[in-house]
Amino acid sequence: MNEYQQTGRCICGQVHFMVDHEPSFACHCHCESCRRASGAPYVTWVTFPIASFHVTKGAVEEHESSAGVMRGHCAACGTTISYVHQTERPQEIDLTAPCFDDQSFIEPKAHIWLEDKPHWVEIADDLPQYSQRVQAN
Ligand SMILES: [Zn+2]
Ligand SMILES: [Zn+2]
Question: Which of 13, 36, 38, 63 is deepest in the core (most CB within 10 A)?
């Protein structure tokens, strides 16, 4: 642990987690997989070094949503919690921004996977938009 620490949890409280490193990135993902996995129009992710992520209560249940992609959720309530791409960026973990207790540190930098965005989702900010992932990330 160090001076940087953020905590979060699922809605039912069976899973609590903590990170002890600054986020490296945050974005709104409009991809079809995030939409279906969350049941929401898009998911806002915050990226951390995977070594800085600690489950402090309960366990994150994972399923492979596409090749090498492990999506984590609470087995009891279904809250979407994590995303790890084991082949492309195994050293990072994305966590759902809305699950953090303190929302003030979250600063999304981009919208990604615009090609999957439903027409009824309107983007009302000036962040960069990418048709798929952010290049060089
Ligand atoms: Zn839960
Ligand atoms: Zn996505």
Answer: 38
Confidence (pTM): 0.94
Tell me the one-letter amino acid at 63: H
Burial of 76 (0-12, 13-18, 19+ CB in 10 A): middle
Instruction: Please check whether residue 130 lies inside any domain of the structure.
Output: no
Give, as residue ranges, everything with CB less than 5 Å from ion ligand 2.
Answer: 29, 31, 34
Distance 125 CA to ligand 1 centre (A): 31
**2: pLDDT confidence band, cut at 50, 70 and 90?**
low
Based on the structure, what is the number of domains in the chain? 1
Residue 128 lies in a domain: no
pLDDT at 134: 87
Domain presence at residue 101:
yes
The pLDDT of residue 1 is above 60: no
H-run or E-run covering 34: helix 32-38
